[in-house]
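ESCALATION

Customer reports they have been waiting on this structure for their group meeting. Please prioritize. Original submission:
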Amino acid sequence: MIEAGETGLRVTNLVQSYSMGGGLFGKAESFNAVDQVSFHLQEGETLGIVGESGSGKSTLGRMAAGIEAPRSGQVSFWGQAYAPIGSALWRQQRRHVQVVFQNPAAVVDPRWSIHAQVREALTAHEKLSRSEADDRSQDMLTMVGLGTMGSRMPHQLSGGQLQRAVIARALVLRPRLVICDEAVSALDVSVQAQIINLLLELRETLKLSLLFISHDLSVVRHISHRVGVMHKGRLLEIGDASALFDAPRHEYSRQLLAAIPADTPRQRRERDLRNFAAVDASAANAHLESSK
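Update from on-call: job pushed to the front of the queue and completed.
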């Protein structure tokens, strides 16, 4: 059970470091994949985390999910710090936090039907009769648009359908938080839109909190209430999605936004003008600080 108290997910001063190099005669060096990151994801909110490959966003997601322990810092979920990985309390906590990864084919068993895999996820955590488990699994498959496909094997589904099945397997446990790590990046653009719309519907229906990790800013903007920008392990800025996209404070954020294709030349000109204004304002502030 989750204790009463603060709701949502809070990460405080998270650090994760890895060793690199070294060997028989060389000295291994370490680098911080995540460096002093803090934020609060509120109940019912979607927080988007964006950044280039290697920015540390997926490492942050694994620590937020409780499947990788941080080097230092703390993750608390609904006011309760994560227990040590592998402990009984950790297993209880983990059922309330589920992850949807980029490649659905890598996380399903090719030998089992879709319905069997959704049911297995449920019976592993709850004591239910076979009929109860079957009913809940079928209800969830229907909710994600696969109501008539439960008997199919993974290879009989398209990429988008398989991702829907993975989402059903995660949500059948009725989690409070779902972490989507590049969950639509391997799909065609039209299928991406379908999965994003599905997640938006499920967020409202099931009262979910979402941590949505992606390198695709246009997708993040569509689904997120707030957005955080990561670069070289650091969270450079975080704020309301509309405000961040209209007037990013950090130069790196402006560079990321400039790379998004504009729908029309007019939109591109308007965005460039906003960026120029932001650069001028930053320069003016820097001049004022230096003249004090």
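Sent to customer with the following note: The first strand starts at residue 9 and ends at 20.
Escalation resolved.
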